[in-house]
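Changelog note: in this version the structure field was regenerated for every chain. One regenerated record is shown below for reference.
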Amino acid sequence: MGTFRLVVLFASLCAAPLATQDEPAEPIPDALRFGSLRVGAVAEGSLGVVWNHLRDAESEVVEIDAPKFVTVTRTQTKIWTAALGVRTRVWFRVDTRKAGAIEGTIELRRAGRRVVVPIDAVVLPRDEISTRVVVADSPFQADSTEDGGLLDTWRTLVATGRLAVDYLNPPAKGESRFSVELLREADVVLVGESTLWHLSEADVARLQAFACGGGRVVLAANKFYGDTIAGANRVVAPFGFELLDVEPRGQKQYELTGEHIADDALTRGVTTVGLYRPSPVRIVDEDLARPLITIEDGLAFSAIARLRSGGEVIAIGESLWWDWVAASPSNARFLRNLLVRERKNGAVASASPELPLLLTEDFENGRIRWTTTDDSAWRIEKVDGSHVFGLIRRRSDYQPKVRSPHNIALLYIEATDFVLTFDVKSTKDTGNHRDCCVFFGYQNPTNFYYAHLGARPDPHSGQIMLVKDAPRRALTTNEKRVPWDDGWHKVKVVRDSGSGKIEVYFDDMETPHMAVVDRTFGKGKIGLGSFDDMNDFDNVVLRGR
């Protein structure tokens, strides 16, 4: 596998020969050359040094000098292994707020010994043409390579592919790295290595939702790299394929050509793919997924699920280790094909000049972006040729702590200001309180807003409601009836936190059905449901921030 260093996060530990006892080992990597970045990009990395005197205590001070454009975010010095000594690791972030060339050195000093590592980048202005790619793990880190020159292929790929890249360090256990704000700007997300070990539940949901909303998610994993297979499978589970936690016996290296490579836009220009200890991908639902590169009958090296939203989920059975990219021109071409994409956000900007698009949902790929207070009360069903998300029981098993709705389905997204529209059909006539509910500003089960669209309003029905550690309380005195029947209706909810405005529309999208000004809650989750009735929901569109 070339000169890659498999450090703390790897199942196997490899090391270049140690220097003499009077000097530290070479830094990993020996140079941090980011290449081209874009203004405002996240540019994270890390640096490792092994000090080979075990008689030096772990607690001995390590001094760090870094240029002004580098912010050290975390450090750690501890015994690495009995054979290799004490290791210092430094995590950092590069300042990309201004365009221009940046260069300097990071210097580490300990017990009279000194290591100097060059760091540089060219920060380019943002544009609306470049594909915006989030890469986790960052290749510029202490678990990738001793030889920083090995990343030249990657830097060339970024420049020629006109990629605007965010580089993320691996998360701490339980930490979320894929924020809604970051994914909102992205076109492609590439996830591999130790990030797959520590994906939080929120990150799994956000990556799945990103794909369902039209984005492309690429996951790189194999058995040799620890538990990356399990992490990747958490993301791909709904999309018709899975990675197998095995590797070939006997044969470690493969070259796949010809009939192994599918005729697809993503394999254009790819003639030979070189693999090292790959883990295969198995298609489990041919209606959802297909192979891009096949290892043998029934097993693929790479597979894709293309969603009706335009989103894509792709797996490759190889941990990235950046020398795999450099191993052959076709490997680099394949990765370039996976990362270069037409800007999905160009259309978004023109469609909504005031608020960006956060989500569209037609439930054709299930309900993976939604969590409910009682899953058994909800189902996905095909109605009139389209999938809908609906309630199959009037009252679920969920019992709120204070008087408030029983049937709630929440999106993973939080928003402060938003415009939400959706289609709804009441599926059971329950008379004057026939309803649907819209939830927003949701903090927790006893603190949120909801709009109750009840057939006949009264002080507890057909109002905009506040739940604040007490039974729901009406904020409005609405007297307009909601004309429920057995057909579909359109609902819109508008929230402006600055003014405190809340407006709720029913069928008539120009005149609010009811409105109020209230600033009790700001940013929070958004959802749909009912107090204790039955509805189907479809065609959800959320714009906001």
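Spot check on this record: The chain has eight helices and 33 strands. Residues 1-21, 344-353 have pLDDT under 50 and may be disordered.
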